[in-house]
Design goal:
By secondary structure, the protein is mainly α. Strands 1-2 form a two-stranded antiparallel ribbon. Helix 3 packs parallel to helix 6 and helix 4 crosses helix 6. The relative contact order is 0.15.
Length: 200
């Protein structure tokens, strides 16, 4: 398995995982462990094997580190958010799976785009539900308690619109992969994986 095949395999797994995660999050409100755990393992294994075929044990170690770093960069901030009550455990593991599959530093772009998508979708839901004032008040209280060292409660209420977070994470990941892999490949330019392009 060359790096090119590894890239293709990781992208195929990523798209499949995101589709299933979005569907289950929208329908049953859960992102299941049996989806995210295998996806994390798949990301680590795909890039390790691809690196080994490309340049032996040194390549295996380097590309494993690229995947593991992506996993950690996505997982740790989301775990902190989970500990504060802002998101569910499935969101944390999905972020880790995305990180393992796209690697570092592309996961940073995926997370940035995902946060932007989540903010836009969330604001849209709040406006549609006409809950702008109530939501703003709860968020101010939430961040005030956070800054004063008091563990805040979840800022949402029973009436708050539910955001299926798998959707913005999927948008962010697809946007990053499209920007740095699919569009350059279609236009005949080098594909960007770890900051250095290689030809397809």
């Amino acid at each position: 398995m060359s790096l090119r095949l590894g890239l293709l395999a990781a992208d195929v797994v990523l798209v499949g995982v995101l589709i299933v995660a979005v569907v289950t999050d929208l329908t049953v409100g859960r992102i299941r462990n049996r989806l995210t755990y295998p996806a994390i393992v798949a990301g680590l294994v795909i890039w390790t094997v691809a690196g080994a075929f490309d340049s032996g044990w040194q390549g295996a170690a380097g590309w494993l580190w690229m995947s593991a770093a992506g996993l950690l960069i996505a997982f740790v901030p989301m775990l902190i958010a989970f500990s504060l009550g802002g998101i569910g455990g499935g969101d944390v593991k999905l972020a880790g799976a995305i990180g393992a599959l796209v690697g570092c530093p592309m996961v940073i772009h995926a997370m940035l785009y995902g946060f932007i998508a989540a903010a836009l979708v969330g604001i849209g839901l709040i406006v549609v539900k006409r809950m702008t004032r109530q939501t703003a008040g709860r968020l101010v209280q939430f961040f005030w308690l956070l800054m004063t060292g008091v563990r805040p409660n979840d800022p949402t209420s029973a009436r708050s619109p539910r955001l299926a977070t798998a959707l913005p994470w999927a948008i962010g990941a697809i946007a990053a992969v499209a920007q740095y892999q699919w569009i350059p490949w279609l236009t005949g330019r080098g594909v960007w994986v770890t900051g250095k392009p290689f030809g397809m």
